């Protein structure tokens, strides 16, 4: 795939040791020297007394079918990981809009900003408004699922269909895990390395099985940790972690009237704050094989596609099965 030319680490063989390791390439806060798969545009936003730039890709269809789809990334990701999804959707006639939320990817990393899912939804609407898009299909993965749910609740007239791919926020993490202040989360973020990110993903995303196709997305966030801009990135990461913990969307699923599809990898165990929860509760968190069914019952008329033995990223881990479920719902 084309995105491998952008890989942010070099694999180096240590002579005589038989070991391979990655030398992470430093990446600045705006990923300015990292090439996205499609041309990047910027929307200038005046928000909360900040002058911000919100990055997005606008992938035009080869033969337009009149439909647009909005792809919303997760917390540990950015719009670049939608490359193949966007390519195949454009070939099917869809216009594909892929924003980087404020605080993520190539978008601004403000220090003084009250992150909320409503604000991210408003920022996303501003991109669509600039492009003159009145209606769209919305697909959200991980944290993007929480943004997508809030966007749909705020602007139902704009959403033709909603797809949630292993969204976080299917449960209220406050019920399980103790609160951490933003300052505490920030100090934890500053300790992140390629190794800690990989260990987290192995534990919760991939069931201790690492594949080559996961490496580019690890290298992107790991590249931040070895750049002088990392405190800026870590601060926004702390603010968005606080947003996820304090702003659950699960209590409002019953209010979603839009046709909805849940694509759930049932092996996923992602749960915010699991390490802070009592041990007797940790095993009850992030049980996607149960959460998917529960959410499907709560969203009126929704459809559930479970992908057995798949983790947090179906569109990376088992792309053909993911795309089949997606396209069958939106074609």
From TrEMBL:
Annotated Gene3D superfamilies: alpha/beta hydrolase
One Gene Ontology cellular component annotation held by this UniProt entry: membrane
GO biological process: acylglycerol catabolic process
Molecular function GO terms recorded: monoacylglycerol lipase activity
AB hydrolase-1 domain mapped to chain residues: 68-317
One Pfam family linked to the record: Abhydrolase_1
Taxonomic superkingdom: Bacteria
UniProt keyword Hydrolase, yes or no: yes
Annotated keywords: Hydrolase
Entries under PANTHER family matching the protein: HYDROLASE, PUTATIVE (AFU_ORTHOLOGUE AFUA_2G14860)-RELATED, MONOACYLGLYCEROL LIPASE
Species this chain originates from: Chryseobacterium pennae
Protein name: Alpha/beta hydrolase
Record has Hydrolase as a keyword: yes
